[in-house]
Backbone:
């Protein structure tokens, strides 16, 4: 018996990257998982690789009716929905189209908010009645450390992720008493295909800058989704959990500094 046995989960943006890794982790814990993505062939392929507990739906997160159909399809296939993981986001193209306030087109800003933020709101709105009727559920939203500070680029992305973090609080406050817990993950850099393709030297930079031994992988996030979706997290509601190897905690000492017990300042 896995900790998610008998549970039905929907993972959006699950054709590749963190979503695909998370779907695999959830299947490993015994859940039946529906993977949604705009890349139809790829999401079908990913679901097939995960075996009988997984199936795919092609949908467009920018389109309200398509998101609603995605949730409806989960209910049609499984009769219930216990876990909604809002993970889909515009990523690869954002590296060039989503830059500064002056250089980012308003149409791109609107599309980013529609896909990254509004689609999760629509999915939650459609899923909640089913979760409540089924006795409860767990919603896990996907933000980013980009939600917490400004930066030189990715302005629409960062604003959309701040919205995701706040949406988490509202869902938690309004539906916790229906036994629907809503939480959010804010990852630091995770070495998915789109990051490796678009951020040269990211692996070396992550290892050099992080106070940890390696950069993040999709399963690091998937494991936290599984935890938040499970009864192990029964008393956690409305939280934004940073999963970044300590990147936002502070910078490590230089690589050539030997740290030994008792090597700190001598007390006066
Ligand atoms: N990789 C990182 O370093 C990192 C860091 C912080 C947060 N995140 C977040 O984690 C999530 C996954 O990131 P990733 O690196 O795996 O990215 P990814 O691009 O590999 O995955 C995102 C998925 O969303 C899908 N998608 C995009 N537009 C869609 C649409 N209109 N309708 C349906 N599906 C659509 C894509 O096809 C893709 O499969 C995103 O929400 C991202 O913002 C990633």
Residues:
């Amino acid at each position: 018996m896995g900790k998610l046995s008998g549970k039905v989960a929907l993972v959006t943006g699950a054709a590749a990257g963190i979503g695909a890794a998370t779907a695999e982790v959830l299947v490993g814990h015994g859940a039946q998982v529906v993977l949604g993505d705009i890349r139809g062939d790829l999401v079908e392929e990913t679901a097939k690789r995960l075996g009988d507990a997984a199936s795919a739906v092609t949908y467009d997160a920018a389109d309200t009716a398509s998101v609603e159909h995605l949730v409806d399809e989960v209910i049609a296939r499984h009769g219930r929905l216990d876990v909604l993981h809002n993970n889909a986001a515009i990523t690869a193209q954002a590296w060039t189209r989503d830059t500064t306030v002056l250089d980012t087109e308003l149409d791109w800003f609107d599309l980013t908010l529609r896909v990254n933020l509004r689609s999760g709101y629509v999915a939650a709105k459609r899923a909640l009645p089913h979760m409540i009727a089924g006795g409860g559920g767990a919603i896990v939203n996907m933000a980013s450390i980009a939600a917490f500070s400004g930066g030189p680029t990715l302005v629409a992305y960062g604003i959309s992720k701040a919205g995701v973090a706040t949406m988490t609080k509202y869902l938690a406050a309004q539906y916790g008493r229906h036994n629907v817990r809503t939480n959010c993950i804010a990852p630091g850099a995770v070495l998915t295909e789109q990051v490796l393709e678009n951020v040269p030297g990211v692996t070396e930079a992550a290892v050099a800058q992080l106070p940890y031994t390696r950069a993040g992988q999709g399963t690091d996030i998937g494991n936290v989704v599984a935890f938040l979706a499970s009864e192990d997290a029964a008393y956690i509601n409305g939280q934004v959990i940073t999963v970044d190897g300590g990147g936002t905690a502070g910078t490590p000492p230089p690589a050539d500094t030997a740290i030994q017990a008792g090597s700190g300042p001598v007390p006066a």
